[in-house]
Amino acid sequence: GLVSLNISKSDGEDDTNEVEANARLIAASPALLAALERLTACPDVSLQECEQETYDALNQAREAIAMATGE
Q: pLDDT of 11-23, one tens digit each?
């Protein structure tokens, strides 16, 4: 799904912190996507020989890549 940012003018410090946090996340997103793509393509990662937690994390990474790329 798509993520929308609700940025409204407010005098609240919490709103400013949230906007700044969102801006940092948006700025980091290309690097995060590249890291997930590299991790999931790593030849050392074998889903047949990994623990359940690793398997779940890799699937979560693949889902995040699909969300980010619109696939």
A: 556 788 999 999 9
